[in-house]
Amino acid sequence: MSSESPRSSEPRAGFEPPTGSGEARANTRWLWFFKLASPPHAYRLAGLLRPWFLWPAVALMLIAAYGGLVIAPSDYQQKDAFRIIYVHAPVASMSLMVYVVMAVAAGIGIIWRIKLAHAVAAASAPIGAWFTVLTLASGSIYGKPMWGTWWEWDPRLTSELIQLFLYLGYMALRASFDDIQRADRASALLAVVGVVNVPIVKYSVVWWNSLHQGPSISKLAAPSIDSSMLWPLLIMMLAFMLYFVAVLCNRVRSEILRRERNTSWLNESFVKS
Amino acid sequence: MPPAATEPAVPGLWSLWLLVSRRELRLAARHWDQVLQPLIFFVIVTTLFPLAISPSLDELRRVAPGVVWVAAMLASLLALESLFRPDVEDGTMEQWTLSGQPLSLMLLAKTTAHWLLAGLPMVVMAPVAGTALGMPLSVWPVLMGSLALGTACLSILGAIGAALTVGVRRGSVLLALLVLPLEMPVLIFGARTVDLAMHGESVVGPLNLLAALLLLFASLGPFAMAAAMRISVES
Questions:
Q1: Is residue A91 part of a domain?
Q2: Is the CB of A176 less than 8 angstroms away from the CB of B169?
């Protein structure tokens, strides 16, 4: 497989420059964007941003945990067992959001051929898969006292399981290519096809009726849970988002290191340090 | 619209479609065993369930729609293995991508021919399998209709997956891993349709949904297939 294309031998080309003469002006306008997409710059930037996401995430998580576990009153019906939603609901929404982030990054990567976008998509997949696993685990721990079973074939659990399969398929497809550029493009296409299918999966699975409680905070106008229970949940969601970005920064950095291991800028920076 | 007489060399889309379809059907006619294999697999899988669950028709009748649908899904997955692989291996697909003709249309024609050879025989065979599992005769039209729409959806989704994994070593397990989660809505609607029909309820809703899915996949799928095939053939 002769995959050593000129793109990969050129160290700073995170972006394949558009061909044609009329694009020079567009290039200067989008310079910041191209700069962002260049691996050395993105590597530095991700390193700079990481603490700014990580520490607020940790602080907000502690605040929300205190609010959720201590301040919020116990539920009149579910008693203290309801408190697991402070983990369950945020990771459940993250499992879906990370897939969308991954698919958007993959779409950007496949349309504009930006290597960094592929790196972001590749870095998101394991995080999203873990969020999905956590959702399933916390959901079944929640389900045991509520429904009396660890597992119930109900729409939301099942669609979450299918979500996990989609992540696993994406990662399996990536892993099966030796050439990283083919892996990028093939898996990006799968992610885009998958994101078109995700709503269909969700709604088809809702086809069955079962005993899962309706979503309680999607109606922002009149939330059906008390505000003393709600605010820790919202803060926890924000905390998980920040945490995701922090972990993503970390993973994107190692993804860049792995992809650019033979390039001159990395060797230079290692010689310097 | 008749083509201009001065440009005989450029075939229209329709003749391109016919060329591809004829080639596929002719190739299949020379390898009948390959066409029969998924069908035999389908029958064998439906035979496994009475052995595994119970010989009593009353018990089998409850699970019959699901059994027939799962068997059809697995058989269509098995048939996908031979959809693109021979053409990629002998270089035909490279010629197709270089030909300047719309690859998406050619792949859709190929997938349609594939459905005629892999999906349609299952649609015809399904009532036999269903009756063996205790389905009443009145369900036959719904069973065949839902399978006809559903297996066409499965062929298109499967073709996208097959085009993505055709260049991968041991791609068949990977193909199942990629395609089965995407196919689950089709299974849900299809099995649900047959289940409703067996309880004597209206099946218009899920059948319409299956038809809508087929329209969606048939209109967007070919572009994904072509993009996937370009990635696979490129290297």
A1: yes
A2: yes
Interface list for chain A against chain B, based on CB atoms closer than 8 Å: 1, 3, 110, 162, 165-166, 168-169, 172-173, 176-177, 179, 182, 185-186, 189-190, 192-194, 196-197, 200-201, 203-205, 207-208
Length of chain A: 273
Determine the Cα angle at B80 with ends A199 and A171, to 5°: 50
| Cα A179 from Cα A8, distance rounded (Å) | 11
pLDDT, tens digit, for every residue of A138-197? 888 888 877 777 887 777 788 888 889 999 999 999 998 888 888 999 999 999 998 888
Q: Is residue A131 part of a domain?
A: yes
Q: What pTM was computed for the model?
A: 0.84
Q: ipTM, 2 decimals?
A: 0.85
On whether the CB atoms of residues A129 and A265 are closer than 8 A, the answer is no
- Residue A48: other Cβ atoms inside 10 A: 10
Q: Do A186 and B224 touch (CB under 8 A)?
A: no
Residue A16 distance to chain B (closest CA, Å): 17
* Residue A220 covered by a domain: no
Cα separation, B179 vs A193, whole angstroms: 11
From A17's Cα to the closest Cα of chain B, the distance in A is 20
Mutation for testing the B interface, residue in A8, A189, A192, A203 having most B CBs under 10 Å? A189
Q: Looking at per-residue confidence, does B185 or B170 come out higher? A: B185
**Domain segments of chain B as ranges:** 14-234
CA-nearest of A185, A172, A186, A164 to B172 is A172
Q: Is the dihedral of CA A206, A209, A213, A214 positive or negative?
A: positive
Nearest Cα to Cα of residue A138 among A128, A151, A122: A151
CB-nearest to A162 from B171, B177, B184 is: B184
In-domain check, residue A111? yes
Q: Please write the tens of the pLDDT for every residue from B151-174.
A: 999 999 999 999 999 988 777 889
- Tell me the β-bridge partners of B132: none
User: Which of B40, B48, B185, B186 minimizes the C-alpha distance to B121?
Assistant: B40
